[in-house]
Amino acid sequence: xxxxxxxxxxxxxxxxxxxxGCYLIAEDGRRFLDFTAxxxxxxxxxxxxxxVAALQDQAAKLWHTSNLFRIPEGERxxxxxxxxxxADKAFFCNSGxxxxxxxxxxxxxxxxxxxxxxxxxxxxxxxxFHGRSMAAISAAxxxxxxxxxxPAAPGYVTVAFRNTNELRxxxxxxxxxxxxxxxxxxxxxxxxxxxxxxxxxxxxxEFGLVLIFxxxxxxxxxxxxxFACEWAEMAPDIMMLAKGLGGGFPMGAVLANDxxxxxxxxxxxxxxxxxxxxxxxxGNAVLDVILAEGxxxxxxxxxRHLRERLEQIAARHxxxxxxxxxxGLMLGLKAARPNAELIGALREAxxxxxxxxxxxxxxxxxxxxxxxxxxxxxxxxxxxxxxxxRRAAE
Length: 394
Hints:
Elements: E1 16-20, E2 23-26, E3 31-34, H1 37-40, H2 49-59, H3 72-83, E4 89-93, H4 96-113, E5 121-125, H5 134-140, H6 143-146, E6 156-159, H7 164-170, E7 175-180, E8 183-184, E9 190-191, H8 194-207, E10 210-214, E11 238-241, E12 252-256, H9 258-261, H10 277-290, H11 295-316, E13 321-327, E14 330-335, H12 339-348, E15 351-352, E16 354-356, E17 360-363, H13 371-393
Parallel strand pairs: 3-15, 5-6, 5-7, 7-10, 10-11
Antiparallel strand pairs: 1-2, 2-3, 4-12, 8-9, 11-12, 13-14, 14-17, 16-17
Helix pairs in contact: 2-10, 3-10, 11-13
């Protein structure tokens, strides 16, 4: 591995030269079943022909003009996201952390223009992850990410996840918003109960707060609905999107209802590359796939089958897997031994997974994964667990 790169990643000594659907092919020709999907990014799989064609077609015409001018594909993507969500307005950016920054700014700005300039604090929860900017790591409050970066940025108050009593106690006259992931990814694939999400809505309505959902990882069809909060039959005021929205092309978005969107006016917020023609063409192609008739129902069916098989494997190998977590195709296995050991063994056996907090192994296949590919992943997992159990018994 090159010494010219900064030492910011503990990379596996593995390089891929191409991808095909749910598979990655290494330089030496080995094929790996990819249940990381770039950490929930390649929502339509690798080299999806519709996405490739959309990118190639747009690349041959126009890459960048800036937001000083209209971008028709961006207008179309915004209209489609609005039509299929709670939102009335969309803002496009380049990443999840930019979506976080935009959402936090919009919540505060909304309070300012609504006559409450003293409301600027945002209540967040333990185990959250919203990106790596100074503000984002301050919002999460995780000492692991804050160490060595000086004092945390002010304005964020962290309370226990899924504890509405503690959350209510943290609200004061300076509180502007509540920010929560419906399913925590980096935090260990921890689901928020649907009643908890509904109670957050009631609390925000009671205190005049803005409800922000971070669906960067759990959104865009990963749970079997376009957005995870749909399962609770409720909506936030602002939503953060990225990852699967671009299917592998860097992009993010902030969705908002009309009430809160009044906070953004010309000159208040912006981006150089966000919403560029290349990204917008790919984003529309991703929506073509995900919104196709029967696609999300197919995600739900494969997810149910995968979850059932994982539960069976866990029951047979409690010495390796303590618990199956998550929803849809955002699943986690709480390992009974260091998760890095299982992740490494699975990789050697041809299955790519990714770790998370609480000693969890994340399974995040492309949404296009088939039942047969889910079965193959489970066969690999069972074989690895059985071999590890035999070695431990020797």
